[in-house]
Amino acid sequence: MKSEIQQEKPQIEMYNELLLDIGSTLMVAGAHCGRIDRNIKRIADVLEVDIETFYSFNGIILTTKMRNNPSETATHHKRLPSHGVHFGILNGISLLSWQAVSENFNYNQITKEFNKIKKLSHHKRLQILLGVGVACASLCILAKGDAVDAAFAFVGSILGLIVRQEISKRNFNVMIAIVGGAFVTSFIASINVYYGIGALPEKALATSVLYLVPGVQLVNAVIDLIEGYVSTAIARGFYSGFLLLCIALGMAISILIFGINNFY
Prior knowledge:
264 residues, mainly alpha, 11 helices, elongated
């Protein structure tokens, strides 16, 4: 029944929905607007349609027009879920767009390959936790902390990330998850500062929360601004800034609990 309904749709509607799905998947996976535009326009050229897009931080509006019949158009809007980062999807869709051009894919081939890309999974949870812990510990050592400081950064970042993930799983606002993660991480690191266990305990406190910094969103905000997507750039910038404030709030709570007043 579902396939029959799909076949009854006008071709332009099917093209529009596919391109909109590709664009929204790219944005949710961490692509900036210019990259999204280039990828979907490349695929649109293969399908022989012209497109016009409008990007906002939480949605995309796409208008598709048949080249051989400009009066045949379709316009849809898609609301986006929370933004994340998935470089595998970004790379896969980019390769698909070039493959579609070089091998002259039709609609069904593009859809089939795109559906495979959408199913790409993230790394396993244990891999992410260990990766974050090792990264924060390494940054602590680079900041002249010793092995003890690095150990506190390692444990604090892992426990903080677990708290953030668990809060997000329960569908709380992402800001609450960031505050919770920052609080737990900095609470662990503050124990080191309070008792002066490591050589430079303040380095562990400063570096253990860096996994929460929205680096991709900040970079995308700058790129969007340079490329002329001003409204999306401003939205990304404000969103990233507010996430940084949430990190600061979580750290401030733990620092106040321990009464640390010499943290620079």
